[in-house]
Amino acid sequence: MKCVLITGGAGGIGLGCASYFAGKGWSVFIADINGEACPEAARSIDGADFAVTDVASEESVKACVERCVKRFGRIDALINNAGIANPFTEPVESLSLEEWNRVIGVNLTGAFLMTKHCVPYLRKTNGSIINMASTRAFQSEKNSESYAASKGGLTALTHASAVSLGPDVRVNCICPGWINVSGYRTSERDHAQHPAGRVGKAEDIASLAYYLVSDEAKFITGQSFTADGGMTVKMIYED
Predict the structure, then answer these.
(1) Catalytic residue (choose from 20, 121, 147, 210)
(2) I need a labelling partner for 222 at 20 to 30 A (CA). Which of 20, 165, 170, 213 fits?
(3) Predicted model pTM
């Protein structure tokens, strides 16, 4: 049975991916820093296991990967989904180096560390890596420098890793737009901003991730895919 390791898998898009892959018959291993949500998420998915993990810590990442392999014997896919979700910080002139490093450490360095320690196992299975970036890798609002830089870095890490790890391991990136995973009550205006006619769901991202790690996508690597209901191609003027 194939195994997927999902960081940030205890909620949001990560949990959506975990549920989707489990429904396709995969073994699921969840890594998340939330010590309460992590075991709860694993219990909600039949046969899943977990490790409370700080992806910005190499020691924690190494222990997570070892636990996954000990439990399931293999890794076929890594989804680097863990990240600090809030894109907004202080204005750049008052943004502390500590806060900058915190966001970069979790969102970007975490993906590097997970990749580093999973690659030996992914080579054995001709596996795949999915890096979860954001449409904010390409467009921004004010006071989001660290978040935008981390997500832009993930797109670059994707094509660099694809070249370095191919043909043994494929690496692709998904850039979600507005994905409603918080229960936010959306309005008709919210949905109308999207040419697809609605705000996104976790399943929209999970299904794309599943396709990209499947045999049907064997010729796809090093690419970044925007999944935003067309929002970034639509000209929107403020009222």
Answers:
(1) 147
(2) 20
(3) 0.94
